[in-house]
Specification:
CATH class of the largest domain: Mainly Beta
Number of strands: 16
Shape: globular
Radius of gyration: 19 Å
CATH architecture of the largest domain: Sandwich
Helix content: 25-40%
Largest sheet: 10 strands, mixed
Number of helices: 8
């Protein structure tokens, strides 16, 4: 346990073969995540969260980090001098270079006074002190020069209606073919336009929403990973576990175990079992 400007500081560290993440609780409502990730090749990742907001800063990269705002337009994210604000349900299309990438992210499940449904980049002053939600609000409310970078449906009616429905109803147990039928589209039409707009299929988009909702539930609640699995719209634990690990890099039990290990180092490589339960 340590202190920073009278704020209680708790932390834990996660190590896997591909990345190391150090999470610090700056205040009761604000976390700071520092990650070092090694990418074996140039990588394209779509990212979206169903709960909470994130504020990313790339701190070190061996090559250019870019965000695809459309099929043919990439926006650079300058290392150390630009931040990315990511609200719930905004889709980000990351283009990441091979090699070591370091970034940090401020995140919270509590809403801000600042409101935006779009992800955007803006100039970042590394010297500013961030310890509370008020500090984050102060930064965002004073942003004047920014660039919107989240994927947008624009004039595509099919993509717009599909995303609006999934954002509201992603926990409902129904197939994406049933979603298409309910919305009055053919399955192929819905999938084609949604993928062209957001670089991911409707089923993948909904999976991200469900998994990130599960992650939030595991971190902020006391329910078991099995309970969270079915509450987040999944039909079986095995597919939930594999999908969760693909997005978070950890199994649900490893993820929940980290929450209870504040101020203790944690290695996913060594801690494969807890009280006889496979993680």
């Amino acid at each position: 346990m340590a202190t920073i400007q009278d704020n209680k500081l708790d932390s834990f560290e996660v190590k896997t073969p591909d990345f190391t993440t150090h999470v610090v609780r700056l205040s009761e409502e604000l976390l700071l995540m520092n990650r070092t990730h090694f990418w074996k090749s140039n990588t394209n990742i779509q990212e979206v969260f169903s709960e909470g907001w994130k504020l990313f800063v790339i701190t070190e990269s061996v090559g250019p980090v870019q965000i695809g705002v459309s099929q043919d337009k990439l926006v650079p994210v300058e290392t150390g001098t630009m931040a990315l604000y990511l609200p719930p349900f905004a889709v980000i299309d990351w283009h990441l270079p091979q090699g070591t990438l370091k970034w940090k992210a401020y995140l919270s499940s509590r809403p801000l006074k600042f409101e935006s449904t779009d992800a955007f980049t803006f100039k970042w002053n590394e010297g500013r002190g961030i310890f509370t939600l008020d500090d984050i609000d102060n930064v965002l409310l004073n942003v004047r020069d920014y660039k919107r970078v989240s994927r947008s449906a624009g004039k595509c009616f099919v993509s717009k209606v599909t995303k609006e429905y999934l954002d509201k109803c992603f926990l409902i147990s129904e197939s994406t073919r049933q979603v298409a039928e309910k919305l009055g589209f053919s399955y192929s039409t819905m999938t084609h336009y949604f993928r062209r707009t957001y670089s991911m299929a409707p089923s993948d988009y909904r999976r991200h929403l469900r998994i990130t909702a599960a992650g939030s539930g595991l971190f902020n609640g006391e329910r078991t990973s099995t309970e969270i699995c079915f509450e987040s719209g999944h039909q079986d634990y095995s597919s939930f576990k594999s999908g969760f690990k693909k997005i978070f890099g950890l199994t649900p039990l490893q993820f929940k175990f980290c929450k209870g290990q504040l101020s203790k180092p944690y290695s996913a490589k060594k801690n494969n079992q807890i009280e006889g339960h496979e993680l």
